[in-house]
Amino acid sequence: MEAYAGVAARGRYLLKLSRPRFWFYLAGPVVVGVAFGAASVPELFRPANVLLFGYFVLPANLFLYGVNDVFDRDVDEANPKKEAKEVRYAGGPLVPAVVVGSLVLGAGTFAITPTAAWPFLAGFFLLGAEYSAPPFRFKTTPLLDSVSNGLYVLPGAAAFALVAGQAPPLAALVGAWLWAMGMHTFSAIPDIVPDREAGIRTTATVLGEERTYAYCAVCWLASAVAFAVVDNRIGVLLLAYPVVVFGIYWSGIAVDRAYWWYPAINTVVGAVLTMGALTRIVPPEAVLP
Description:
Elements lengths: L1 H16 L5 H15 L3 H4 L2 H11 L1 H13 L1 H4 L17 H18 L6 H13 L13 H4 L6 H11 L5 H18 L4 H6 L5 H28 L1 H7 L1 H12 L3 H4 L3 H20 L2 H4 L2
Helix pairs in contact: 2-4, 2-10, 2-17, 4-10, 5-7, 8-10, 11-13, 13-14, 13-15
């Protein structure tokens, strides 16, 4: 019974470490990428699509956040986010072993995807590790911490390439990368105080809270413009992000509260994008009475 309780406790710890609220930050782009890459209904449900999605739901998040927590152990001691919604890495072999296991599973994604997807997969694993780990540790270098978070869109680009056999449009990649830069830097606002106390320099700590809001708005406006090159309707949809960030700033809502709204906002936007893409394959008039 005690052994079972210990296994259950470790499972709960790893589940919390994987940030379930943020699972769709990696898995969601896979859904969007498949929807935009497919040209027919059967292409949507290939086994490889399901396997890629499954990897980016949990194993990829264990890899990404496991590396983060191991190398942020000292910094996280002063981070209030670790008190309730996240967990603190307390040492021991469990998390490093899970990270290695997740990376081994990740190697299998190359076997189920065409070569067109490989640069995006390689980019994800490289940036996912080096965002937090030495020697680069991008998260401690202002601007590079923001730019490197384009890693979140790479699963979607790989999924598009898996289905379509080619890379997604350049404008879509640029727009998605800018969106990720804004999203990452906004999420760093609640960490400004603990990061400064720990001596860590990030885009947010250098700019300060007010100018970081402006930086995020610029990234998201530029993202909307880039997506408008692909499709005007996507550009209009992406305008939701600068509108929301302006609203948060002007309303005076605490950023550490607003931060937790974004998984829901991102899910809604991703769902709208996906449904829009699916109408290319199955027009609404074909299924509506």
